[in-house]
Every structure is written in structure tokens, then in C-alpha cells.
Amino acid sequence: MKNKPSLWSAAPAAGRNFLILVLTLRIASYFMLSDNLVLVQTLKAGLRIALTFLLFISVFFQQRKVAAGSATLANPLPIWLYGLYLLFGAASLLWSSSFSASLLQWLMDAEGFLFAFLYIRLLLMWRQQHPGDAFSLQRLIAPAVVLTGFCFAAGLLLDPDHFYRLTHGGSVSRLGGYIINPNELGMLFVIGITCLLPRVQQDKKWRISILLAMGMLVQLLLLTGSRSSFIALMLVLLMYAFANGKRLHRVLFFAVALALIPFAGWSFFVKQDQLSELITLTGRLPFWHDLLTYNFPREPWLGYGYMRIDYADKFESLNAYAGAMTHNTFLQVLLGLGLVGFSIVLVQLAVFFWTLRRVADRSSRFMSGLLMIPLLINSMTEFGIFGETNYGILFYLFLVFSLAAEPLGERRRIKGHTGHENPGNLPYRSASFT
């Protein structure tokens, strides 16, 4: 009996729009949309759980429409190591300085891990049914970020007091307000711009709509006042220009990067006029110094518990501000899970890049590397890919799960030399990031 087509099997556009909508709502679930803390936490938790459950149902029904071997992962080691990090985080509940705080953070990160797995699993199943780039990850992330950008642009016009955050005694306003940390928002816009770059020119035609969308995201990025995100944008543009073989592309992106420098110099340096905060990374350097000097030696091996940096809720720094998180994802792990957890994280990240270098598809390697630039720079000064729950973790997990389905270069060479579809019974999937 012939199987009936699934809900999306005959309509790839509908499936793609579904994934874009789910991702947009997931990004929104990290925002503070109300001043009522209880309401905000309820909305965040409810929306995230609902989206994860929706993906689970979609995967369940779609699973029956794809080949049985489609679930094979070619490179599962980065996933296993990230799972080991989560397991060790769960074990740290036994000695955490605050069981309830660590448990809440761990549950949110575990739920995010499940969401990322289901999202990429559904994406790969639909990509198997509809080969091509309709279900490439970058074509899902870009519109989701652009939609989010439109919402913030509209918010600036309709409710600027809520969407701006005043700093430096009220002399500087930064986009994001108390809805989201401006540096986190800036990182999101850089990710969106990165995903739009390959779409600027197609079939030898310039895409005006893509250029306008990128222009809007760049303007919003400047309004966040995020220096780290601006540095990430410069690196992304320059690396893309160097790697792109078309001379016109190189000239265009070099010109854009150079043109943005004076605007950023005014917005980030002249306007804020705070040389001391630049030298100390807005007080982070003395804060990190005190953490490593006073807190780390007290719990060097196992740490204070998952996402904890002190016995109390905040570390009272002697030479800087008091803080509940380190503003550095690696220090966050070092303080929370000690040298043991820190070693797991370093190995996981090293294996991720080692596996990425071996991926056969050049465009997959390149785009994944570009996306890691804003994620890693953000990880050095904010929550980061191993810090407290944020959408940076989500995007990193997207890359981890996508990488797991990519064929490696040596396996493709073996296939080419032998003529066998799957030589030596090696797991092989022809799933590409772009």
C-alpha cells in the first residue's frame, strides 16, 4: 500500500516557513517581554516547552516518511561530549552552592539541547525529501533574525523608552533596553548578517531585498552600541571578502567594512567617551582577576555547581562590580564545574573544530566557521555558548547537530576511489549545510 504524503512532503515552502516561525518564536522566548518577573518566567518556560513539544510531534509523524537509515550520524563525537558536559552539570547538583538555581539552569539547557536536536532532525528529514538549499540552515536563521530585527525597529518607533537602555548617566542609549542584553542582541544581528551574505548575489543578479535587510541589521547593530558585536561583524565581512573568489564581492565588503569604522568610532568611542572602561573591558578584567584570585582556589576541581560562581548568589568583587555571572563562558564553566568541567568543555570545542576541518563540503565548513566568529567573541564577554541559558547556545547546538550529519572528506574520497555507495559500512549521509 502506497504511503500517503506527509503534511509537508508536497509543500517545501510550507515546511520551511514552519521552521522559520518556530525559530523566530524560540528567539523571542529569551526576551523580557514584561516587567512582571513571574509572568515573564511563565511565558518563557511555556513557550519553549510548547515549541519543543510541537517539534517532537512533527518529527514523530515525519519519521515514518523517510528512509530508515536517515538517522545515522557520521560525526557523533561532538554531540556525545556536549552530552557529557550536561551530565557532569547534572552531577554538580549534588554539591552546588544553590541546588534550585543550578537545577533551573540545567533544566533550561537540557530542554534547549532537546529542542536543537529535534529542530535539526526535522530539517534533515525535509531536506532528504526536498534536495537543494530550501532547507539550508542559513536560509532559516536569516529570515528569523530579520523578523526579529523588524520587531525591534518597530519598537523603536512605537515605544522607544522600553526598547532603549540608558547608560553612562543617561547620555548613551542602547537598543535592547531591558528586553535583552544589547551585546546579546548585537550578536544575534551579526549572525543574521552572516547568514545573508551568500544570498547577496544569485544567478549573477544582485538581490536588493537582501542588501536592504543587511542594511537594516547593520543599523540596528550600531544602535546596540555593542563593541564586541561590531568587531565580530568586521571579522565576518573581512573573512568573507578574503575567501570569496569574486573581485567585485571583495571590493564591496572591504568598502562596507571601511565605511562602518567611522560610524562605529563615533557611536562606540567618541560618544561614550570612556577610555577607562575600554581598557578594563567595562570592568570585566578586574572582575575576572578577583574571581581567579579569590574564588577559583576555594573550589578548583568541581566548582560551585552548575552556573554558580560563589557560595552566595553574587560574587562581591573587591576591585569591580558585584556579579552573578562571569561575562565569559569559559570562566563560567571553570568557576561552576571546576577544572574537570572546564576540561570537558575544551575537549568538546576542540573536537568540534577538528571535525569541522574534516567536513567534505567546503561551503559547510566556511559558513559554520563564519557563524562561530560572533558566537566565540560573544562568549568572551557575555553569556556565551556554555554560559547561562541564551540563544547563543542554541545556535552553537544547531552547528553541532548539523556537523554530525555531514560526510567527512576522507569518506568521500574512499567512495570516489572504490565506487561503492557506503564503503566498509561506514556511516555516510549526504547532508549539507548550504
Tell me about this structure.
- This protein is mostly helical.
- It has one domain (19-425).
- The chain has helices at 12-28, 37-63, 77-91, 99-129, 137-158, 160-163, 182-196, 208-224, 227-243, 247-270, 275-279, 284-295, 329-358, 362-381, 391-404, 409-418, and strands spanning 164-167, 172-175, 201-202, 205-206.
- Strands 1-2 form a two-stranded antiparallel sheet. It has a two-stranded antiparallel sheet with strand order 3-4.
- Helix 2 (37-63) packs parallel to helix 4, helix 5 (137-158) packs across helix 8 (208-224) and helix 9 (227-243) runs antiparallel to helix 10 (247-270).
- Structural class of the helices, strands and pairings? mainly alpha
Ranges where pLDDT stays below 50 over 5 or more residues in a row are 1-10, 412-434
Strand order of the largest sheet: 1-2
Mean of residue pLDDT values: 85
Q: Whole-number radius of gyration?
A: 22 Å
Largest sheet entry: 2 strands, antiparallel
Strand content: under 5%
Please report the total strand number as a whole number. 4
Query: In sequence order, what are the helices and strands, one letter per element?
Result: HHHHHHEEHEEHHHHHHHHH
Distance between the termini: 35 Å
